[in-house]
Amino acid sequence: MGEKKLFITGATGYIGGEILHQVLQSFPAFEVTALVRSVEKGELIEEQTKRKVKTVLGSLDSLELIRKETESSDIIINAASNNHLASLKVIKDALSKKTSETLFIQISGAGVISDSLDPEKYTPNKVYDDVKDIEEINSLDDSQPHRPADKLTLSIEETNPKFVKTAIISPPTIFGISDGYDRKHSVQVPLLAIETVKVGYSFTVHKGDTRWSHVHIYDVGTLYVSIIKKFIEKEEFRSGYFGYYFTNDGIDFTWKEVTTKVVEALYSRKLIKNKEIRELSPKEVDELFHLPALYWGTNARTKAEAGKLLGWSPVKSGDSDFLAAIDLSIDYLEKQGLLTPGTE
After folding, report:
1. CATH code reported for the domain at 5-177+214-246
2. What residue spans in the chain does CATH classification 3.90.25 cover?
3. Percent of the chain whose pLDDT exceeds 70
């Protein structure tokens, strides 16, 4: 499919590592450069990819480096942050001056459509469809998580529509072990397990009746591959203001149901001494568990229709996959020594 130059940030992260793994498998002729924060991270990537990836040392604050790599690449993937505006502004400026066809894919997250930590303001039946509800998604309030970065990304393509295509990938709860190179576990379920073991009991935010959609990390990666294929084959795909892609499958479990499964898995392994689940306020979750209550105390329900228009179809994100992955995730965390009781 041609020798394209691809630049990726976040390559040692959970999502970025999976994307890089799948890119190398699907597009072996690509010339890939990854931004890494340390020499050690660079060596990790280069060794595990058998030198198929060139690394450059820096961070999202290395703005001139990001500008240079954006200018010289055909495909740019930011998987490092869904909130770093300074780097996005530099990417936007560089893309606005491009004179060759270029694709930019930005990571976001379903937190952008989360409702509220206040039960009185819950909208439990609201499901955002990334095709039918695109105008509503593009009109979300600036106070929503990730929204400023989303808005900035959505404005890029119109600065240079002849040469630039953009897309935003906005996953809900991601599960599964990544095929990446460093961080291999996700956030919501693993964090819940890790902190439950530390504290000795678990929690729900209020009654735990909130819901997030879910997706396997593998299916997140295949959506990136689907978009890249459309781009390099010069086929039409939703981009710019219409290029907003959710990723999910199955039904949306309540966090009470998920927490109960996590607690049962931990208890069966003798990692906790009881199955206690306390109903806590967002403030108590922060004070007792040092965790952002938004992850479990809001509703963020999505319908991934835009990806299906590409021919993308999730294969590992069903309900049985999600529930089975709780055990698999806890097995992984235990083997990595990440499930250790606290001293309190």
Report:
1. 3.40.50.720
2. 188-213+251-300+318-331
3. 99
